[in-house]
Structure formats: C-alpha cells, structure tokens
Amino acid sequence: MPDLRDPSTTPLNFTKSINLALSERGINAMRSAGHPALLHRIFEDAIPMKARMIHGRTDAGDLFQESQQYDANGRSIRAVDRTGLNKCLLDALDERPNVTLHFNHKLTGADFDNNVAWFEQLKPQGKSNELWHGSENGRRPNEIEVRFDFFIGADGAHSATRFHMMKFARLSYQQEYIDTLWCEFHIKPTSNDGFAIDPNHLHIWPAGSFMFIAIPSSDHSFTCTLFASAEHFQSILGDPKANLSSFFNAHFPGVCPDLISETDLLDQFQNNPHLPLISIKCSPHHYSSSVVILGDSAHAMVPFYGQGMNAGLEDVRVLFSHLDFYGLYLSEANTKEMWATVLEKALDAYTAQRVRDAHTINDLALRNYQEMSANVRSPLYKLRKSLEETVSVWMPWTGLGVEKVSDRHKTSVEDSPNDIKPPRKIVNGAWRNIDNHKIAEPMAADAERNALVASAERHDLRGVHPGDGQNTPGEDVEEDEAEGYEYPLRGARVDVQHYANHDHAEGAGGGGRHEDLPAPDFFNEEVRTVNIIRTWMLEFHYLG
C-alpha cells in the first residue's frame, strides 16, 4: 500500500472519508499500547460529540433541530479526521527502532505452511518509470520473496491475506453488499472561519429509508454523507441539475442552500464517487501458527454503528492479550517448535473469542441504519431512550440504559444474545416477568445461563489491564485509575454488568473491563429483578 501520509496518495475507495468516530473501544486499545503521546496527539484535533442533532421540518413547515444526548452522564464520542489519524499511527510506528515500513508492495502469493510470502514492488503514485526501481524493462514490477515467523494481515475488506489464507484454512466466508450507496459532501466553514452548525453533535437528517449526516472536522468544516438506495441515486442521476436540490429540499430541509449552495451540492454529487457498502464475516480469523487477519480483513462492516475502526483497533489489543496470556514472549517459548505451539494456542483462543464478537457487531451495525434513518423521530423510540436514561441515572447497578457511550466501555459484545432475539419472544415474556418476578421462559433462561457460564470461563483470557497488561482478572482497579483509566460506572461493577453487554451507537465503540466479572446467579432475587427490567427495556428497544 502507499504511504497514507503523502497528500498525493489516493486511497483505494477514491476518497479520504467517511470521517471517523473514535470511542472508548478504540481509545482503550490505543491506551493499552503503552504510548501515551499517541493518544495525546490524536486528541489534540479530535472534536467531542455529546449527542445526535436531529434535523427536520414541522407540519407547519418550520425547520427544527432536536438534540438527543448519547449518554445520560454526559460522556462523548470524538470525531477524528481519517488522514490525521493515519498520520499519527504511522508516525508512531516510524518512531519505533524495531519497525521498518515498506510502502508500495502488493502481496501476490503466500505459502502459510512454510511461512513464505511474495510481494510485487509497485511504482509509487506520481513517479515516472525512470525514477521507479522496478524491473529492468520498467513495465513489470519486481517480485520479492519474504520469509516470516508470523504474518498479520490488516489489508482491508478486499484482503489479499484473507484470499491466500483461504487456500490453507477451511475458512467460511460471507460477503454482502447492502442496497445503499454513499456519496460525500462538504459543508464549508462560515465567512468568519467558524462552524456552520454545532460542532459537538453528529448531525442527522433522517428520511425513513435513507439519510444525510454531518460530522465536524478540525478545520471547522463538516464532512457529510448521503446514504440512499441505488434507486434513489439513479432517479437523481436522470437529471441532476433539476432533481438534486429538490430532493434535498424535500428530505433534508435546511441543507441546501443554507449550508451547501446549489452549485456546490451539484458539483460534489457529480464529482465525488457513489460507493457501495459491504459487510463481511468470516471464520476462522487465523491459520495454524502462521497468519491472523485483523480489522476489515476479518469483519468489514457498514458504518452505521461507528464500530469498524474501533473494532479493528480492539482486535490488536485482544490479540496481544492472548499472546501475553499464553506466554509467547516468555523464556519457556525459546525454541522454534515451542514458540509455534504457544502461538497456535493463542490464535485458537483469539479466534474463538473474536469471531463471535465481530459477527455480533456486524449484525448490530446493519440494524442501526433503521434507528439512525427513521427511529430517531419515533415517539416510542424517544420514550424508550428516556426510560433508559432514567434507569441509568437512578439504577446504574442494573447495567442498563446508558445506550450510547458507557455501553461502549465494554470490551466484548459476544454475550449479548438478547439483543438479537426476535421481538415477539420478548413481547411474550416481558409482562409475565414483571408479574411473576421470575424468568418466564426456562429454556431461554437456561440458554442464557449456559452462555454466561461459558463467558465466565473465558474471562481468564480477557482480563487485560489497560495500563501494563499484566494484572489478573478482577485485580488492580485502583492501579487502572491511577494510570488514567476512568471507569464509566464504578458502582456498576456487579455481577449483572457483563451480561447487560449491549453495544449500540453509530459513533462509538466499547473498551473497558467489565468482562472480568463472574456470571450472575439467576436464582438470586436481585438478579431476577435486573432481568425483569432488562427484558422490559428491550421491549421498548424493538418498539422504538
């Protein structure tokens, strides 16, 4: 790949956006890397977003905007510039004495049984053949053979690493293009170099099955995105000059010409690409002790949950927590054979945890489009949000109700089976739960209990300390806080917090350490009460 710090570099999707939303899931991953200066650099240009701002028009024809806070306790997610983040991460790598960066190389083949890979050396963008150190005739790139100990593939949704790994691993693969395209737009700063709209919000113009969003940038502009079906794009393309502004006026009131002029709107629509959205799941995420895939290579997801980047960063943290747990870098693994054996055990454990996590987040990301594009204007949705915030403030021990930020402080989402149950099952059980003060459906209760017991057995692999990475599960809470980690709900460290593990928002991720808690006793009166409230809240989640 080319050096993304180079301004002349054009990414593979021909754009430098969608702007990114950095949340605790990604922040905690970078925090655990032991590089405090990295986070400081990133936060310098990050913009906190405390809420969504919903835009629309009243029945009387007046424009309105309504703030919907992400978190009842005032926590925020952060808008970050993609180019700036790439630069910070690459600069941090460049500073490491044991890291050498090689750009403009393309993986063309790999033998993951014998740990050898082949790369083509590509001509850098903007370089003539005379300046390119390619093959002798200047037409075909040189091929380089590289022997390796361990191969980490983080090469995106169209991963060459995953393609070659399929030849060795029995890899199940699912790819889906959803019926939604996206196009980038730009809101300029005001004439006095200020923000045209409130910078501490993620702005949404919901229109049912499609939407327009705006995320602030550090240069006081907004990066905007139109998400709509291919059919809508085609209808506009029939006569863009006549159709585009009327489409925006009908569905996204206040955007044109108030924030983007008709000329700029048309120019951006015609010149910026109309790109698809892909969702990818695969399993396993590794092969033997040879290779592992991370990020979009393993679990590309649609952007409506804001989890793609954050989950990719978390992949790195979780991977190295397993490598540390199994003692890959201890003296006992000092032979090549022992090192490979330990590494394979660690990768087996990583895949066992991460595949389920990734699939769950992927499903939630797809489902969150409905919330962003339609539900945010629903009275039932607003009622559900109000109830969640009330529960979060007055009953934080339930682990419920902090929908947008503190839920994302959880490291794993794998134990959230109730979040993806059919709504009718919840409807049938909710009021019986309240009347009887017990779990209404024993089979569902047993299944959830079994999942939680299995989760408790996995906790020993996930109790990773955000500071030094060495503490055992349930220890060093004070040490965490001394090193700068802020627990979102200190009072929520009870046995119900982990299974209320639902990660829900377009702009944020998790992180944090509630996963080191024991599985709850479903025959305990307090936990039964929590289950009642939780089921009731999920009822409103589906109705909203």
Summed up, what is this model?
The chain has 544 residues and is an alpha+beta fold. It has helices at 24-31, 36-45, 82-94, 160-165, 230-237, 240-251, 262-271, 296-299, 308-325, 336-373, 379-394, 423-436, 442-458, 477-482, 525-543, and strands at 20-22, 47-49, 51-57, 63-69, 77-80, 105-111, 116-121, 143-147, 151-153, 172-187, 201-206, 211-216, 222-228, 275-283, 286-287, 291-293. The longest helix has 38 residues, at 336-373.
Spatial strand sequence of the major β-sheet = 4-3-11-12-13-10-14
Number of helices: 15
**Termini distance?**
43 Å
Structural class: alpha+beta
- As an assembly, this protein is single chain
Rounded radius of gyration (Å): 24 Å
Question: What is the helical fraction, as a range of percent?
Answer: 25-40%
Average pLDDT figure: 75
Describe the main β-sheet briefly. Answer: 7 strands, mixed
**What gross morphology would you assign?**
globular
pLDDT under 50 segments (min length 5)?
128-134, 401-411, 414-544
User: In percent terms, what proportion of residues is strand?
Assistant: 15-25%
Number of extended strands: 16
